[in-house]
Amino acid sequence: MNNPPDISQDSKEYEEYAHGIRKHVRGYLMVGATLLVFTGVTVALSYVHFGTQKANIAVAMLVATFKAGLVAAIFMHLAAEKRLIYRVLIFTGFFVLGLFWLTFFAWYDYPIFR
Amino acid sequence: MDTSTSVGTHHEPHAHDAAHEHHELGFWRKYIFSTDHKVIGIQYGLCGLSFLFLGFCLMMLMRWQLAYPGQALPVIGKWLPHIFGPGIADGKMTPDFYNSLGAMHGTIMIFAGVVPLAFAAFGNFVVPLQIGAPDMTFPKVNAASFWAFAVGGVIMLVSFFVPGGPAKSGWTSYTPLAVISDTGPGHNPVFNGQTLWLIGFIFLITSSLLGAVNFITTIIQLRAKGLTWMRLPFFVWAQFVTAFLLLLAFPPLEAAIIMQLMDRVAHTSFFMPAGLVLNGAPAYLSGGGSPLLWQHLFWFLGHPEVYVLILPAFGIVAEILANNSRKPLWGYKSLVFSVLVIGFLSFIVWAHHMWLTGMGSAVSAFFQTTTLLISIPSVIILSAFFISLWGGSIRFNVPMLFTIAFLPMFGIGGLTGIPLAFNSADLYLHDTYYVIAHFHYIVAPGTIFGLFAGVYFWFPKATGRKMSEFWGKVHFWPTLICMNAIFLPMFLQGMAGMHRRWYDGGQGWNVANDHTVWGLTGFEWNKPISWAAWIMGLAQIPFIINFFWSIKHGEKVNDNPWEATTLEWTAPSPPPHGNFVTTPIAYRGPYEYSLPGRERDYTMQNEPVEPAERTRRKPPAELVHA
Amino acid sequence: MEIPYTISTRPDTGLWNAKIGIWLFLASEVMLFGGLFSAYIFLRIDAPPGMWPHGLLNVPVGTMNTAILIISSVTVVLAWASLKMRKYNAYWWYMLATISCGIIFLVVKLGYEWPQKFDHFGIYIKTEALGKYEQYLGNAYAAEKGLPPRLEITGHLHNRAALNDPNIKEYEVALDPLNADPTNAEMDRPHFWPRPATEKIATIEKEDVQYATMFEPRHSAYFASYFTITGLHGLHVLGGVLVFIYMWLPVSKRLYQRNPEHLANRVEVSGLFWHFVDLIWIFVFPLFYLL
Lengths: 114, 626, 291
Hints:
The complex is a heterotrimer.
Chain A (H helix, E strand, L loop, with lengths): L11 H34 L7 H23 L7 H26 L6
Helix pairs in contact in A: 1-2
Chain B lengths: L26 H6 L4 H31 L12 H5 L10 H36 L8 H20 L18 H4 L12 H29 L12 H32 L11 E2 L2 E2 L8 H35 L6 H14 L15 H29 L8 H18 L7 H7 L3 H31 L1 E2 L2 H27 L20 E2 L2 E2 H32 L1 E2 L70
Antiparallel strand pairs in B: 1-2, 3-6, 4-5
Helix pairs in contact in B: 2-4, 2-5, 2-16, 4-7, 4-8, 4-9, 4-14, 5-7, 7-8, 8-9, 8-10, 9-11, 9-12, 9-14, 10-11, 11-12, 12-14, 12-15, 14-15, 15-16
Chain C lengths: L16 H29 L13 H26 L3 H31 L2 E5 L8 H4 L1 H7 L6 E6 L12 E6 L1 H4 L20 E5 L3 E6 L6 H26 L3 H9 L1 H31 L1
Antiparallel strand pairs in C: 1-2, 1-5, 2-3, 3-4
Helix pairs in contact in C: 1-7, 1-9, 2-3, 2-9, 3-7, 7-9, 8-9
């Protein structure tokens, strides 16, 4: 969602802008419905067996990431956000993945077989 | 109260606006619950300095035990038990009491002393002024941040007076010791030292997070017109990176603290392994947790934290160096690049605090590499500072004395860290006094010298008066000598094998008594070190007196007593609410000292660029003075 | 004294202050929950076989709560859109819907789910005594079928006094279906609809007990993680609800009349926080309830 221009309620510009928002409302409702459907999908898929437990987890996380992506992109307006915000989030993502991966790496790389 | 895109200006002192009642603010809103960044900065500063002093006193108590283990403290030994209870009955320290002093010395110095002073106090006071802003972007959040810090600090203080005394499991609070410490009969389930430490910490972390959000947004959004990123004073860059470190590194520790709180209060087993035996009996816990998990989460913050401690000092040193050598900083771009790289790398080096936890060679190689890499930008910064002195017209005022002393002191601290970056060398040096000497060289004659320099430097801006030069030098020289007398021998003690956190100073351990280093055994070195520490304590008295006396009786000075170039010196001293009489516009870089062809040896950032002055890079048309 | 760019955007960044502020804060929250999730990962990976339970949480209720949060995310963004379109009444109703969803979520979690857990009991049997209770555990059957070992007997504790009285030497437990009929293939995997405890009572000697508590945080690494993460998440939901209530009370109408864009920005910023809270739940739900 673009940042709003500095406008008052009376001008024509405002009417166009408000109309623009109105179009997005439909999008919000569609995304909401999709999220509800995919919640059901998540539950259903959890009763399907994809071989190993790891695979089950991977599938569930994939669906969750898709849902989270929709929330972030559409509800949180990230799809049309400014570069600065992207940069902050990319660094954050890098560091949180670093926390996960490096701790995992440290955990499982040890000289003595446990 | 419609929108405005420019900084408000105050031309008429009595102009009233229904929405702006700040002229009528009462005492409480003006001085206690203020939202003005300068007041908040001073609040943080006074509290930070007080906590630094408290942490210093804790250390002086510890030094007695190290030099004269088991002996009653002279003079104050009689009334200490009345304050601290049975831990110091008859003036003699129990091991637990010594451990409490150690844990609280570290915690208070770092989280209640240096961070609030270096980041919050100096940052709050100086950054908005240096970028030409009227205040921080979120003044109320700023006030909330200070009060969260105050609550956290009070909780830490209260922990000294609960039964059992304050936290005693190190500032690192390693589990499982930290989970079982202060539990059992005689201890309150919640109001015990270790639990209060955890709760207080949550408030301190919250304070830093709120502050970090404020700093970053302010620096991005409220820079004055013409103040591009590469025209920012280096101090602002340093605070910017520091804020990011606090923002992203603190939360995993907050998560870990919540989990340790759950372990202590709800008896969960996040960090308690299965099969633990306590006091001879198996612990009745679910088990399944991991002490290593605590260490990873702790040091994920712990390492960026040490850069939080040094970067603001780098910033302060940069400003004072340029100002007192009357020439621009050498290598501004390298400095900026280096500080950004330090910030980034600091997140992926943390396991060098965990070399002895049994990590394998692959992950160790990774962390050794990143640790060595991060020394490179640090060296670049230090080198740029040294080179900045070359050819300068150096003025040896008190801020500059502390600043020049910072350089070799930080050099020693940084270089002595290199052996610790190798897990092989660290096998020997881990947990010895070598490590203590290394990090204290960086923080004590490093950061704290930078902070002292900053206090003397910006005191005139905050009060309109200078601190006494004479008493400043009386403060400086003994402090410098004592710092080295305290910490240099510690390298020797550490290399001789003396361990950290020995409550008897090594008296009962062979390695501290078997052989001599430079004529004294490891244990015997404790005495001269302790005396140097106590003398250094005395040397701080002139500073304290000078500070408070000068507020009312110091030499009155004009708005720019140091003849500096950055924007804060264009504001009145002290700056009014809203900071600037006219909105500043930046036309040039931050260190335009000794510009050729000029009468004065400094040109302020808001002085327009004459056409004759124009260099290769053309300034934007509208900023050129016609 | 006016702080610039509170409502209008700064030209070179294209952003107003609070937008940057909230995203920075959310970045720190990502790191916070990241720390908790990393704890979850390591505790789970390192749990010995049979020590990480499945099917202990109420999936239908959890699914409903998830739906409630998703709906509240929709209503809050519609509230913001209404404000942008200068429709205060629509805003007020959508905001009320959001607040209500938030409160329902909390009531379900704290008023139903958690108390249900606190009322349930679980005993980890000592390794050497596992054979003695084979009729309730069915480990031979589990080994045959390649299922993880069963180390715990769960159900409703009938003699609550046994928890604190060292003189009472055994626990009387109304068994859960799995322990009542461990070799029934239906019990191999969790079911969508929760199975209530049976009437079958088992007596377990305290000397065979490795560790026995109600389903509290200290019961296991699983419950420790579950209660801590959902508890912290719940605190965030509560915080969000309180902020929304403030933006819905008559004081907000006054701000709307003075400067509607300012209120819209505040709602947007709070809405971003709320979506983040929803986002965390989207991950928490499968990780604890389903997997």
